[in-house]
Amino acid sequence: MVFNSFEFLLVFLPVTYAGFVLVHRLWGWRAVYPYLAFASLVFYAQWSLEIAAVLVASATGNLLAAKIIIARREKGASTRAHLIAAVAANILVLGLFKYANFFLDTVNAVSGSGFSHLNIILPVGISFYTFIQIGFLVEASNGQAAVRSVGRYFLFASFFPCVTAGPLVLQKEIFDQMGDRDDPAFSPWRVSVGLTMFGMGLFKKVVMADTIAPFADAAFNGVADGAAIGFVEAWVGSLCYTLQLYFDFSGYSDMAVGLGYLFGIRLPLNFNSPLKARSITDFWRRWHITMTRFFTNYIYTTTAIKNTRRAMVGQYGPVKKFLAAAAWPVILTFLVAGIWHGAGWTFVVYGLVHGFALAINHGWREFKMPTVSPLAGWFLTMSVVVSGLVVFRAPDLETCGAILAAMWGISQFVGHGTAEMVTLDLPFSVGLIAIYGAIVLTMPNTQEILRRYWISSDPQPEATNAIPSWMEWRPSRVWAVSAAIAMVVAFTMMGSNTSFLYYKF
Questions:
Q1: 212 touches 238 (CB < 8 A)
Q2: What is the pLDDT of residues 391-442, one digit of tens each?
Q3: pTM of this structure
Q4: Contact residues for 398 (Cβ-Cβ < 8 A; gap 6+)
Q5: Using N-to-C axis directions, what is the helix angle for 188-203 and 477-492, rounded to 10°?
Q6: Catalytic member of 24, 82, 288, 341
Q7: Assuming Cys at both sites, which of 27, 92, 420, 469 could form a disulfide with 227, CB separation 3.0 to 4.6 Å?
Q8: 126: buried, middle or exposed (CB in 10 Å: 19+, 13-18, 0-12)?
Q9: Average pLDDT in the 54-68 region?
Q10: By C-alpha distance, which of 198, 184, 195, 188 is closest to 21?
Q11: Percent helix, strand, coil in the chain (nearest 5)?
Protein backbone atom coordinates (compact mmCIF):
# COMPACT_ATOMS: atom_id res chain seq x y z
CA MET A 1 0.00 0.00 0.00
CA VAL A 2 1.43 3.34 -1.05
CA PHE A 3 0.34 6.90 -0.31
CA ASN A 4 -0.69 7.44 -3.94
CA SER A 5 -3.22 4.61 -4.01
CA PHE A 6 -6.99 4.60 -3.69
CA GLU A 7 -6.65 1.92 -1.01
CA PHE A 8 -4.65 4.28 1.17
CA LEU A 9 -6.55 7.49 0.42
CA LEU A 10 -10.11 6.14 0.55
CA VAL A 11 -9.80 3.36 3.14
CA PHE A 12 -6.72 3.32 5.35
CA LEU A 13 -6.30 7.06 5.92
CA PRO A 14 -9.91 7.97 6.80
CA VAL A 15 -10.45 4.84 8.93
CA THR A 16 -7.16 5.35 10.78
CA TYR A 17 -7.87 9.03 11.35
CA ALA A 18 -11.37 8.32 12.65
CA GLY A 19 -9.92 5.78 15.06
CA PHE A 20 -7.25 8.27 16.12
CA VAL A 21 -9.88 10.87 17.04
CA LEU A 22 -12.07 8.30 18.80
CA VAL A 23 -9.23 6.79 20.85
CA HIS A 24 -8.15 10.25 21.94
CA ARG A 25 -11.69 11.21 22.92
CA LEU A 26 -12.09 8.03 25.03
CA TRP A 27 -8.65 7.62 26.60
CA GLY A 28 -6.48 10.63 25.71
CA TRP A 29 -3.02 10.93 24.19
CA ARG A 30 -1.52 8.09 26.24
CA ALA A 31 -3.69 5.64 24.32
CA VAL A 32 -3.13 7.34 20.98
CA TYR A 33 0.51 6.31 20.71
CA PRO A 34 0.00 2.53 20.95
CA TYR A 35 -3.01 2.91 18.65
CA LEU A 36 -0.87 4.65 16.01
CA ALA A 37 1.85 2.03 16.47
CA PHE A 38 -0.72 -0.71 15.78
CA ALA A 39 -2.09 1.19 12.77
CA SER A 40 1.46 1.58 11.45
CA LEU A 41 2.07 -2.16 11.66
CA VAL A 42 -1.23 -2.76 9.82
CA PHE A 43 -0.10 -0.33 7.12
CA TYR A 44 3.28 -2.04 6.80
CA ALA A 45 1.79 -5.54 6.81
CA GLN A 46 -0.08 -4.73 3.59
CA TRP A 47 3.10 -5.67 1.73
CA SER A 48 3.33 -9.04 3.48
CA LEU A 49 3.11 -10.56 6.94
CA GLU A 50 6.67 -11.85 6.57
CA ILE A 51 8.28 -8.43 6.21
CA ALA A 52 6.01 -7.08 8.95
CA ALA A 53 7.43 -9.82 11.20
CA VAL A 54 10.93 -8.55 10.38
CA LEU A 55 9.94 -5.03 11.46
CA VAL A 56 8.37 -6.32 14.70
CA ALA A 57 11.44 -8.44 15.45
CA SER A 58 13.73 -5.49 14.76
CA ALA A 59 11.80 -3.14 17.05
CA THR A 60 11.51 -5.77 19.80
CA GLY A 61 15.17 -6.68 19.70
CA ASN A 62 16.35 -3.07 19.66
CA LEU A 63 14.03 -2.08 22.52
CA LEU A 64 15.38 -4.91 24.66
CA ALA A 65 18.97 -4.03 23.74
CA ALA A 66 18.35 -0.36 24.56
CA LYS A 67 16.90 -1.25 27.96
CA ILE A 68 19.97 -3.36 28.78
CA ILE A 69 22.31 -0.56 27.66
CA ILE A 70 20.42 2.08 29.65
CA ALA A 71 20.34 -0.14 32.75
CA ARG A 72 24.10 -0.69 32.58
CA ARG A 73 24.75 3.01 32.05
CA GLU A 74 22.63 3.90 35.08
CA LYS A 75 24.69 1.49 37.17
CA GLY A 76 27.89 3.11 35.96
CA ALA A 77 28.95 0.01 34.00
CA SER A 78 30.48 0.10 30.53
CA THR A 79 28.01 -0.08 27.64
CA ARG A 80 30.56 -0.30 24.84
CA ALA A 81 30.46 -4.06 24.29
CA HIS A 82 26.67 -4.20 24.41
CA LEU A 83 26.36 -1.28 22.00
CA ILE A 84 28.80 -2.85 19.55
CA ALA A 85 26.93 -6.16 19.71
CA ALA A 86 23.53 -4.51 19.20
CA VAL A 87 24.71 -2.36 16.29
CA ALA A 88 26.49 -5.36 14.72
CA ALA A 89 23.27 -7.40 14.97
CA ASN A 90 21.37 -4.64 13.15
CA ILE A 91 24.00 -4.43 10.42
CA LEU A 92 24.05 -8.22 10.09
CA VAL A 93 20.28 -8.38 9.59
CA LEU A 94 20.36 -5.47 7.13
CA GLY A 95 23.26 -7.10 5.30
CA LEU A 96 21.44 -10.41 5.05
CA PHE A 97 18.32 -8.94 3.50
CA LYS A 98 19.89 -6.22 1.39
CA TYR A 99 23.44 -7.21 0.49
CA ALA A 100 23.71 -11.01 0.64
CA ASN A 101 22.98 -11.57 -3.06
CA PHE A 102 25.27 -8.68 -4.07
CA PHE A 103 28.03 -10.33 -2.02
CA LEU A 104 27.39 -13.67 -3.74
CA ASP A 105 27.48 -12.00 -7.17
CA THR A 106 30.82 -10.39 -6.31
CA VAL A 107 32.27 -13.69 -5.11
CA ASN A 108 31.05 -15.41 -8.29
CA ALA A 109 32.60 -12.71 -10.48
CA VAL A 110 35.96 -12.79 -8.69
CA SER A 111 36.34 -16.51 -8.10
CA GLY A 112 34.26 -18.01 -10.88
CA SER A 113 32.05 -19.74 -8.33
CA GLY A 114 28.46 -20.58 -9.08
CA PHE A 115 26.63 -19.58 -5.92
CA SER A 116 22.91 -19.13 -6.49
CA HIS A 117 20.93 -16.17 -5.19
CA LEU A 118 19.23 -16.55 -1.85
CA ASN A 119 15.44 -16.41 -1.99
CA ILE A 120 15.14 -13.27 0.13
CA ILE A 121 12.49 -10.57 -0.08
CA LEU A 122 13.84 -7.09 0.66
CA PRO A 123 11.62 -5.52 3.35
CA VAL A 124 10.46 -2.06 2.30
CA GLY A 125 12.18 0.66 4.31
CA ILE A 126 14.55 -1.67 6.18
CA SER A 127 17.45 0.77 5.72
CA PHE A 128 15.39 3.55 7.29
CA TYR A 129 13.97 1.78 10.33
CA THR A 130 17.24 -0.03 11.01
CA PHE A 131 19.29 3.15 11.08
CA ILE A 132 16.90 5.21 13.19
CA GLN A 133 17.06 2.43 15.78
CA ILE A 134 20.85 2.34 15.60
CA GLY A 135 20.72 6.05 16.36
CA PHE A 136 18.55 5.32 19.39
CA LEU A 137 21.05 2.71 20.64
CA VAL A 138 23.98 5.11 20.28
CA GLU A 139 22.14 7.87 22.13
CA ALA A 140 21.06 5.39 24.82
CA SER A 141 24.71 4.49 25.34
CA ASN A 142 25.64 8.20 25.48
CA GLY A 143 22.99 8.97 28.09
CA GLN A 144 20.80 10.94 25.67
CA ALA A 145 17.89 8.48 25.56
CA ALA A 146 15.67 7.06 28.27
CA VAL A 147 13.70 3.83 28.63
CA ARG A 148 10.47 3.96 26.61
CA SER A 149 7.22 2.05 26.79
CA VAL A 150 6.57 -0.63 24.20
CA GLY A 151 3.79 1.35 22.50
CA ARG A 152 5.78 4.55 22.20
CA TYR A 153 8.95 2.82 21.05
CA PHE A 154 7.09 0.84 18.38
CA LEU A 155 5.54 4.08 17.15
CA PHE A 156 9.00 5.64 16.91
CA ALA A 157 10.32 2.61 15.01
CA SER A 158 7.36 2.08 12.68
CA PHE A 159 5.31 5.31 12.31
CA PHE A 160 3.64 4.77 8.94
CA PRO A 161 4.29 8.21 7.39
CA CYS A 162 8.05 7.66 7.57
CA VAL A 163 8.73 3.92 8.02
CA THR A 164 9.10 3.15 4.32
CA ALA A 165 11.27 6.01 3.01
CA GLY A 166 12.08 8.39 5.81
CA PRO A 167 12.72 10.95 7.01
CA LEU A 168 15.41 9.45 9.25
CA VAL A 169 14.11 10.74 12.56
CA LEU A 170 16.08 11.20 15.77
CA GLN A 171 14.63 9.76 18.96
CA LYS A 172 14.57 13.10 20.78
CA GLU A 173 12.47 14.90 18.18
CA ILE A 174 9.82 12.16 18.32
CA PHE A 175 9.74 11.20 22.00
CA ASP A 176 9.70 14.81 23.15
CA GLN A 177 6.30 15.10 21.46
CA MET A 178 4.91 12.12 23.38
CA GLY A 179 4.79 13.79 26.76
CA ASP A 180 1.75 15.17 28.54
CA ARG A 181 -0.39 17.05 26.02
CA ASP A 182 -3.64 18.95 26.28
CA ASP A 183 -4.16 19.81 22.60
CA PRO A 184 -7.12 18.19 20.80
CA ALA A 185 -6.64 15.28 18.40
CA PHE A 186 -9.06 16.79 15.91
CA SER A 187 -8.28 20.34 14.87
CA PRO A 188 -9.62 21.99 11.70
CA TRP A 189 -6.31 23.86 11.40
CA ARG A 190 -4.27 20.68 11.70
CA VAL A 191 -6.45 18.89 9.17
CA SER A 192 -6.40 21.69 6.61
CA VAL A 193 -2.65 22.38 6.88
CA GLY A 194 -1.64 18.72 7.04
CA LEU A 195 -3.80 17.73 4.07
CA THR A 196 -2.57 20.75 2.10
CA MET A 197 1.03 19.65 2.47
CA PHE A 198 0.07 16.05 1.75
CA GLY A 199 -1.84 17.17 -1.34
CA MET A 200 1.09 19.17 -2.69
CA GLY A 201 3.30 16.13 -2.25
CA LEU A 202 0.75 13.89 -3.96
CA PHE A 203 0.60 16.30 -6.90
CA LYS A 204 4.40 16.30 -7.18
CA LYS A 205 4.50 12.51 -7.26
CA VAL A 206 1.51 11.60 -9.41
CA VAL A 207 1.32 14.50 -11.83
CA MET A 208 4.93 15.61 -12.12
CA ALA A 209 7.29 12.73 -11.28
CA ASP A 210 5.25 10.01 -12.96
CA THR A 211 4.71 12.12 -16.11
CA ILE A 212 8.41 12.65 -16.76
CA ALA A 213 9.46 9.14 -15.65
CA PRO A 214 8.86 7.38 -19.02
CA PHE A 215 11.50 9.52 -20.75
CA ALA A 216 14.11 8.70 -18.12
CA ASP A 217 13.18 5.02 -18.31
CA ALA A 218 13.39 5.01 -22.11
CA ALA A 219 16.93 6.42 -22.04
CA PHE A 220 18.35 4.25 -19.27
CA ASN A 221 16.54 1.04 -20.20
CA GLY A 222 17.39 1.50 -23.86
CA VAL A 223 21.12 1.73 -23.15
CA ALA A 224 20.90 -1.16 -20.67
CA ASP A 225 19.31 -3.27 -23.44
CA GLY A 226 22.24 -2.55 -25.75
CA ALA A 227 21.18 0.52 -27.73
CA ALA A 228 23.53 3.44 -28.33
CA ILE A 229 22.65 6.94 -27.15
CA GLY A 230 23.47 10.36 -28.55
CA PHE A 231 24.56 13.55 -26.81
CA VAL A 232 21.11 15.18 -26.72
CA GLU A 233 19.25 12.02 -25.69
CA ALA A 234 21.78 11.33 -22.93
CA TRP A 235 21.32 14.78 -21.41
CA VAL A 236 17.54 14.70 -21.80
CA GLY A 237 17.30 11.27 -20.18
CA SER A 238 19.60 12.28 -17.34
CA LEU A 239 17.79 15.54 -16.66
CA CYS A 240 14.44 13.76 -16.80
CA TYR A 241 15.63 11.31 -14.15
CA THR A 242 17.03 14.11 -11.99
CA LEU A 243 13.66 15.87 -12.03
CA GLN A 244 11.73 12.62 -11.63
CA LEU A 245 13.69 11.71 -8.50
CA TYR A 246 13.42 15.25 -7.17
CA PHE A 247 9.63 15.40 -7.42
CA ASP A 248 9.17 11.76 -6.44
CA PHE A 249 11.19 11.94 -3.23
CA SER A 250 10.34 15.50 -2.28
CA GLY A 251 6.70 14.62 -2.93
CA TYR A 252 6.97 11.62 -0.61
CA SER A 253 8.68 13.74 2.03
CA ASP A 254 5.92 16.38 1.85
CA MET A 255 3.31 13.66 2.22
CA ALA A 256 5.15 12.18 5.21
CA VAL A 257 5.39 15.51 7.02
CA GLY A 258 1.77 16.35 6.21
CA LEU A 259 0.53 12.99 7.49
CA GLY A 260 2.64 13.22 10.63
CA TYR A 261 1.17 16.64 11.41
CA LEU A 262 -2.35 15.37 10.74
CA PHE A 263 -1.82 12.73 13.45
CA GLY A 264 -0.22 15.12 15.91
CA ILE A 265 3.47 14.30 15.33
CA ARG A 266 5.79 16.77 13.65
CA LEU A 267 8.49 15.25 11.44
CA PRO A 268 11.74 16.82 10.16
CA LEU A 269 12.01 18.19 6.65
CA ASN A 270 14.01 16.32 4.03
CA PHE A 271 14.22 18.87 1.21
CA ASN A 272 14.96 22.55 0.90
CA SER A 273 15.19 23.40 -2.81
CA PRO A 274 18.41 21.37 -3.35
CA LEU A 275 18.65 22.10 -7.07
CA LYS A 276 19.21 25.76 -6.21
CA ALA A 277 22.46 24.85 -4.43
CA ARG A 278 25.63 26.65 -5.55
CA SER A 279 28.10 24.21 -4.03
CA ILE A 280 28.09 20.48 -3.41
CA THR A 281 28.23 21.15 0.34
CA ASP A 282 25.15 23.32 0.09
CA PHE A 283 23.44 20.62 -1.98
CA TRP A 284 23.80 18.05 0.78
CA ARG A 285 22.43 20.52 3.32
CA ARG A 286 19.30 20.67 1.18
CA TRP A 287 18.90 17.16 -0.33
CA HIS A 288 17.88 14.21 1.85
CA ILE A 289 18.62 16.39 4.85
CA THR A 290 17.94 13.78 7.52
CA MET A 291 20.22 11.22 5.91
CA THR A 292 23.03 13.78 5.69
CA ARG A 293 22.43 14.66 9.34
CA PHE A 294 22.53 11.02 10.41
CA PHE A 295 25.78 10.12 8.66
CA THR A 296 27.38 13.41 9.67
CA ASN A 297 26.55 12.79 13.33
CA TYR A 298 27.58 9.17 13.50
CA ILE A 299 30.39 8.77 10.95
CA TYR A 300 31.85 12.07 9.75
CA THR A 301 32.07 13.88 13.09
CA THR A 302 33.47 10.87 14.96
CA THR A 303 36.10 10.17 12.30
CA ALA A 304 37.05 13.83 11.86
CA ILE A 305 37.53 14.38 15.61
CA LYS A 306 39.62 11.25 15.96
CA ASN A 307 41.84 12.11 13.00
CA THR A 308 42.17 15.75 14.07
CA ARG A 309 43.56 14.63 17.42
CA ARG A 310 45.94 12.26 15.66
CA ALA A 311 47.07 15.07 13.35
CA MET A 312 47.75 17.35 16.31
CA VAL A 313 49.79 14.71 18.13
CA GLY A 314 51.68 13.81 14.96
CA GLN A 315 52.19 17.47 14.02
CA TYR A 316 50.96 16.90 10.49
CA GLY A 317 51.58 19.52 7.83
CA PRO A 318 48.60 21.45 6.36
CA VAL A 319 48.02 19.10 3.42
CA LYS A 320 48.38 15.88 5.41
CA LYS A 321 46.20 17.29 8.19
CA PHE A 322 43.49 18.25 5.69
CA LEU A 323 43.57 14.81 4.07
CA ALA A 324 43.33 13.03 7.43
CA ALA A 325 40.89 15.29 9.27
CA ALA A 326 38.58 16.47 6.47
CA ALA A 327 39.02 14.69 3.14
CA TRP A 328 39.11 11.10 4.38
CA PRO A 329 36.17 11.47 6.81
CA VAL A 330 33.89 12.94 4.16
CA ILE A 331 34.90 10.35 1.54
CA LEU A 332 34.30 7.53 4.04
CA THR A 333 30.97 9.03 5.08
CA PHE A 334 29.62 9.22 1.55
CA LEU A 335 31.01 5.83 0.63
CA VAL A 336 28.88 4.42 3.45
CA ALA A 337 25.95 6.60 2.37
CA GLY A 338 26.24 5.27 -1.18
CA ILE A 339 26.29 1.66 0.01
CA TRP A 340 23.37 2.39 2.35
CA HIS A 341 21.26 3.32 -0.69
CA GLY A 342 21.57 -0.03 -2.38
CA ALA A 343 23.47 -3.21 -3.17
CA GLY A 344 25.54 -2.69 -6.30
CA TRP A 345 28.78 -1.21 -7.56
CA THR A 346 26.89 1.75 -8.98
CA PHE A 347 26.01 2.82 -5.42
CA VAL A 348 29.63 2.45 -4.36
CA VAL A 349 30.70 4.70 -7.23
CA TYR A 350 27.88 7.14 -6.50
CA GLY A 351 29.05 7.52 -2.92
CA LEU A 352 32.67 8.00 -4.00
CA VAL A 353 31.72 10.62 -6.61
CA HIS A 354 30.04 12.76 -3.97
CA GLY A 355 32.68 12.01 -1.36
CA PHE A 356 35.51 13.23 -3.59
CA ALA A 357 33.45 16.20 -4.79
CA LEU A 358 32.85 17.25 -1.17
CA ALA A 359 36.53 16.73 -0.31
CA ILE A 360 37.52 18.99 -3.22
CA ASN A 361 34.95 21.57 -2.10
CA HIS A 362 36.32 21.53 1.46
CA GLY A 363 39.88 21.75 0.18
CA TRP A 364 39.03 24.67 -2.09
CA ARG A 365 37.87 26.65 0.93
CA GLU A 366 40.57 25.36 3.29
CA PHE A 367 43.40 26.49 1.04
CA LYS A 368 41.67 29.75 0.07
CA MET A 369 41.47 29.13 -3.66
CA PRO A 370 39.91 31.79 -5.94
CA THR A 371 36.23 32.46 -5.30
CA VAL A 372 33.88 30.94 -7.86
CA SER A 373 30.95 33.04 -9.06
CA PRO A 374 27.47 31.90 -7.95
CA LEU A 375 26.50 30.96 -11.51
CA ALA A 376 29.70 28.97 -12.09
CA GLY A 377 29.24 27.30 -8.69
CA TRP A 378 25.71 26.29 -9.63
CA PHE A 379 26.84 24.82 -12.99
CA LEU A 380 29.67 22.87 -11.36
CA THR A 381 27.37 21.59 -8.63
CA MET A 382 24.63 20.52 -11.01
CA SER A 383 27.20 18.83 -13.26
CA VAL A 384 28.24 16.63 -10.35
CA VAL A 385 24.66 16.08 -9.20
CA VAL A 386 23.27 15.09 -12.61
CA SER A 387 26.30 12.95 -13.48
CA GLY A 388 26.12 11.29 -10.08
CA LEU A 389 22.45 10.49 -10.58
CA VAL A 390 23.29 8.76 -13.85
CA VAL A 391 25.42 6.38 -11.81
CA PHE A 392 22.66 6.15 -9.21
CA ARG A 393 19.95 5.25 -11.74
CA ALA A 394 21.90 3.00 -14.11
CA PRO A 395 21.50 -0.76 -13.53
CA ASP A 396 25.23 -1.37 -14.03
CA LEU A 397 28.52 0.41 -14.55
CA GLU A 398 28.57 -0.29 -18.28
CA THR A 399 25.27 1.51 -18.79
CA CYS A 400 26.23 4.54 -16.72
CA GLY A 401 29.61 4.67 -18.49
CA ALA A 402 27.93 4.78 -21.89
CA ILE A 403 25.49 7.52 -20.88
CA LEU A 404 28.16 9.65 -19.19
CA ALA A 405 30.43 9.24 -22.20
CA ALA A 406 27.66 10.49 -24.49
CA MET A 407 26.86 13.39 -22.14
CA TRP A 408 30.44 14.60 -21.95
CA GLY A 409 31.37 14.06 -25.59
CA ILE A 410 33.72 11.08 -25.25
CA SER A 411 31.43 8.38 -26.59
CA GLN A 412 33.80 7.70 -29.45
CA PHE A 413 36.21 6.29 -26.88
CA VAL A 414 33.67 4.01 -25.24
CA GLY A 415 32.35 1.02 -27.06
CA HIS A 416 28.72 0.24 -26.18
CA GLY A 417 25.54 -0.54 -28.00
CA THR A 418 24.51 -1.58 -31.47
CA ALA A 419 23.39 0.30 -34.56
CA GLU A 420 20.07 0.87 -32.81
CA MET A 421 19.81 4.29 -31.18
CA VAL A 422 17.78 5.42 -28.19
CA THR A 423 14.97 7.69 -29.38
CA LEU A 424 12.91 10.03 -27.22
CA ASP A 425 10.01 12.38 -27.83
CA LEU A 426 12.33 15.38 -27.62
CA PRO A 427 9.77 18.21 -28.00
CA PHE A 428 7.61 16.88 -25.15
CA SER A 429 10.48 15.79 -22.86
CA VAL A 430 12.46 19.01 -23.36
CA GLY A 431 9.30 20.99 -22.71
CA LEU A 432 8.76 19.15 -19.43
CA ILE A 433 12.39 19.77 -18.45
CA ALA A 434 11.95 23.48 -19.12
CA ILE A 435 8.70 23.72 -17.13
CA TYR A 436 9.94 21.60 -14.22
CA GLY A 437 13.28 23.40 -14.18
CA ALA A 438 11.57 26.78 -14.00
CA ILE A 439 9.43 25.57 -11.09
CA VAL A 440 12.40 24.14 -9.20
CA LEU A 441 14.64 27.17 -9.69
CA THR A 442 12.18 30.07 -9.39
CA MET A 443 9.21 28.95 -7.29
CA PRO A 444 9.05 28.75 -3.48
CA ASN A 445 9.15 25.28 -1.98
CA THR A 446 6.43 23.66 0.10
CA GLN A 447 7.63 24.83 3.50
CA GLU A 448 8.01 28.39 2.19
CA ILE A 449 4.44 28.35 0.91
CA LEU A 450 3.25 27.06 4.32
CA ARG A 451 5.59 29.14 6.47
CA ARG A 452 2.69 30.92 8.21
CA TYR A 453 1.75 27.51 9.66
CA TRP A 454 5.04 25.75 10.45
CA ILE A 455 4.41 22.00 10.77
CA SER A 456 7.90 20.48 11.01
CA SER A 457 9.85 19.41 14.11
CA ASP A 458 12.74 21.50 12.78
CA PRO A 459 13.11 25.05 14.12
CA GLN A 460 11.55 27.48 11.69
CA PRO A 461 14.30 29.47 9.96
CA GLU A 462 14.04 33.17 9.41
CA ALA A 463 12.63 34.03 6.01
CA THR A 464 15.52 35.03 3.76
CA ASN A 465 13.69 35.17 0.44
CA ALA A 466 10.48 37.14 0.44
CA ILE A 467 7.74 35.58 -1.65
CA PRO A 468 4.57 37.30 -2.83
CA SER A 469 1.84 37.21 -0.21
CA TRP A 470 -0.56 35.57 -2.65
CA MET A 471 1.76 32.54 -2.78
CA GLU A 472 1.65 32.03 0.99
CA TRP A 473 -0.96 29.49 1.98
CA ARG A 474 -3.85 30.59 4.16
CA PRO A 475 -7.30 29.16 4.88
CA SER A 476 -9.15 30.93 2.09
CA ARG A 477 -11.57 30.02 -0.67
CA VAL A 478 -8.93 30.56 -3.34
CA TRP A 479 -6.53 28.14 -1.71
CA ALA A 480 -9.33 25.66 -0.97
CA VAL A 481 -10.40 25.65 -4.63
CA SER A 482 -6.79 25.43 -5.84
CA ALA A 483 -6.07 22.50 -3.51
CA ALA A 484 -9.28 20.76 -4.58
CA ILE A 485 -8.37 21.10 -8.26
CA ALA A 486 -4.87 19.77 -7.62
CA MET A 487 -6.25 16.77 -5.72
CA VAL A 488 -8.80 16.02 -8.45
CA VAL A 489 -6.07 16.12 -11.10
CA ALA A 490 -3.88 13.84 -8.98
CA PHE A 491 -6.77 11.42 -8.40
CA THR A 492 -7.46 11.14 -12.11
CA MET A 493 -3.82 10.21 -12.78
CA MET A 494 -3.38 7.65 -9.99
CA GLY A 495 -4.38 4.55 -11.93
CA SER A 496 -0.96 2.88 -12.08
CA ASN A 497 -0.19 3.29 -8.34
CA THR A 498 3.53 3.55 -9.03
CA SER A 499 5.77 3.04 -6.02
CA PHE A 500 8.09 5.74 -4.76
CA LEU A 501 11.65 5.44 -6.04
CA TYR A 502 13.14 5.30 -2.54
CA TYR A 503 11.11 2.19 -1.73
CA LYS A 504 13.89 0.31 -3.56
CA PHE A 505 16.54 1.54 -1.15
A1: no
A2: 999 999 999 999 999 999 886 555 455 568 888 999 999 999 999 999 999 9
A3: 0.94
A4: 416
A5: 40
A6: 341
A7: 420
A8: buried
A9: 97
A10: 184
A11: 70, 0, 30
